[in-house]
Design brief:
CATH topology: TIM Barrel
Radius of gyration: 17 Å
Bound molecules: 2-phosphoglycolic acid
CATH architecture: Alpha-Beta Barrel
Structural class: alpha/beta
Number of domains: 1
Amino acid sequence: MRKPIIAGNWKMNKTPDEAAALVEALKPLVSDAACDVVVCVPAVDLHAVKAAVKGSKIHVGAQNVHFAEKGAYTGELSADMLLQSGAEYVIIGHSERRQYFGETDATVNQRVKAAVAAGLKVILCVGEKKEEREAGYTDALVEYQTLIALTGLDKKEVEKVVIAYEPVWAIGTGLTATDEQANETIGVIRQALARKYGKGTANKVRIQYGGSMNPKNVKGLMAQPEIDGGLIGGASLKAEDFSKVVNFDK
Ligand code: PGA
């Protein structure tokens, strides 16, 4: 019922020229993808990538957005700037932003509200650290992160948000949550959405898994009923690997 969505998170990789070349290599490999395909690229690559995806099914996204419409925020980018530069999606609250750039649940919420209001499609990242899982706080934490981030949105807006459940200990480490762990925690997120917004809304929200997802483990993860896609870091930087993830059902 929910259409899967596979998104690449390129992080701080690829110059505009390299970005265009990667998209050109990717295009023929994902031409009959059954899922939504997105590449979230560095903001300075948006223009080149938007041109390169022309005539393909690949959607374009950014990796962060500021919550103000404009103003004295040196180095930041507004939702309108990203939209006009070619972004349709934006990742918000990635753990690397929480860890290295002082992102909090409150600022994630501000960014989500600004992005949705401007018409960007949000990929909201939540997930626990290793010590939080070991202490038994995973469920409470992902519920809290999710509900705070969505505060202020109505049901219709929540339905359009894509959530990426990314256990921090699995990002870039080669460690993946087991299929069952990922499915279970995504189920916890969906139940929290159901309690707050009703079952109908919860059943419409697409929830991805992220954290060392790759051509080898994608099939098992995607076979889980709660998992609606993936947010892919390392494996999205090579056209062949990313296309294998996108074509998990082939
Ligand atoms: P990874 O990154 O696939 O390299 O673990 C995922 C992410 O950070 O979104």
